[in-house]
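Newbie here. two chains, one complex. Structure please?
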Amino acid sequence: MLDRIRIVLVQTFHPGNIGASARAMKTMGLSDLVLVNPRQFPDEEATRLAAGATDVIDGCRVVESLSDAIADCVQVIGASARLRSLPLPCYHGVEPMIEASWPRLADGPVAMVFGRERYGLTNEEIGHCTHQLNIPANPDYGILNLSQAVQIVAYEAFKRHTREASDAASRTSRAGEAYPNIEQLAHFHDHLHRALTSAGFLNQPHAKTEAHLKALFARAEPSRKELSILRGVLNALERSDPT
Amino acid sequence: MLDRIRIVLVQTFHPGNIGASARAMKTMGLSDLVLVNPRQFPDEEATRLAAGATDVIDGCRVVESLSDAIADCVQVIGASARLRSLPLPCYHGVEPMIEASWPRLADGPVAMVFGRERYGLTNEEIGHCTHQLNIPANPDYGILNLSQAVQIVAYEAFKRHTREASDAASRTSRAGEAYPNIEQLAHFHDHLHRALTSAGFLNQPHAKTEAHLKALFARAEPSRKELSILRGVLNALERSDPT
């Protein structure tokens, strides 16, 4: 399961942080690293700080855009020091995030997305995510180094992985349902946009109607079957007369 | 309480690790740092990697021997990658260590002692400790970077410190949103039924389309605002031409 947790680093500035992140991953059993448009890579500093994890560095994918990094993922969690005003569901704490995401690993990769050292992730990049993660920290100075944030996530994942016994989940189980991947969700979002537009809903941009509905559907975590039902509803919506 | 957790670094080789450890501490509310005979300190690299935690660097004590670092402590826990043959009690995992030590903070400082990057702590130094700590990690490569080990310890300490307030949450938070009552939800279900009927969706009872959608919306736990958006979508659906 640990090999299904994907660490995605977006436009990392310091190659040393890439190496340190690779080491943080490997010590906790993770191996799937994807770099989106790193400033400087490959690099000596990355190799040096990777220490015994050069295989993670050597095996990592380097892509141009965040979409390329996450298309096959069933969940995409954006780590963010500051909460956005976007109505995206947010995990407060790494442990609850790992606990909630763990069952999803059965269906496909779950991506943890980390942004630039100084600027984090853009709103557009957060828009590619299904959830946000906030790591509670010192309110006077809560800015973790990038590779340290990766270490904490990897550490909690390893802890969960080795925890014996009962899946004493407070969540109801939805066994037997396959989840859509990010690409299928992206198609759904496009369809939602077209249907809302043709039904005349998006004429008041300040209302954030589309963002609210996207967040609602993200929370619902539709299975593939439910997604196809929703797309049937959207088709019907497209045939309606606008207000 | 967090200021009573003392981080002791013994003969650290890379000044960068000192700086990164200071940052790891401050982001999690710790402040008491003691350096035993560091190879190179003060140093630019330490200051650079401390980032916003230069106050921790500036305020740290530098001593000649481990005894000087821990004399006033009520518990001294030596972090060790490998277990020694010494009959010293050992915590397997950071969380149980924090849990067990927490009550001792009322009596005085508790020290976490970390050794050299390459060689860890000597048997003589472990002899100064009351306990050992082993951080469970990848059996194929479990050697965490020094400052990463400090980060994990500090992170678990901060979690413990803030646990009273928070907790209960494997659920995402949605503070500040009013939820519909049962009557409003019943109206929504009636409206859903009418809209799906008029759009021609309910002609195949075996498909359980309505049941699937009701379950999906139940999971999403729409707020009142979201419910009104959904009802707007249902209104538009009612104006559509059935298939």
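Moderator note: The radius of gyration of chain B is 28 Å. The CA atoms of residues 62 and 97 of chain B lie 26 Å apart. Thread marked as resolved.
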